[in-house]
Write a structure and sequence with these properties.
With 172 residues, the protein is mostly helical. The protein has three domains: 53 residues; 44 residues; 64 residues, no CATH class. Helix content is 92%, strand content 0%. It has six helices and no strands. Helix 4 packs antiparallel against helix 5.
Length: 172
Amino acid sequence: MLSLISSLLGFASGGLPRVLDFAQSYIQDRGDKKHELALMAMQREREIALAKEGFIAQAKIEEIKTAQVALQTEQIAMQTQAQEKVAMWKHDMKIGEGASTWVINLRASVRPMVTYLFVGLLIVVDVAGIWYAYSTGVAFADAMDMVFSDDEMAILAAIISFWFGSQAFNKK
């Protein structure tokens, strides 16, 4: 009997903090909603008073000015980005001054060569995987699932997106 009573007391005391927390949040929520309704009523009265005085037009003018400032900020950011890109190109050209043609060509081919090497590696690994699967008697559909994994497709998509996606965006 004592174990049953202690179990009930333990169960009740375990749930008591949650019940108290719920009650407190309910009371707080009611107070918050009452406060918000009072603020909304005051704001509505203020807007009516401002409308009577003719200040609504001034508020709209301020909104337009704010939008213009945001647009100017965006234009400045775009100009800064364009100037940065031009400065990087000039820097790259300045570094290449006085260098031989093959050094300039080598510098220009680093990223494409890394891409070629990576895609070539993917092709070699995939062909070797398909050949191994074929020679060991694995079904073609199972071999394709093993060889062309989601990770490989993500890497290949990133390469294609870099070379074709970013080029398309840069032309605009």
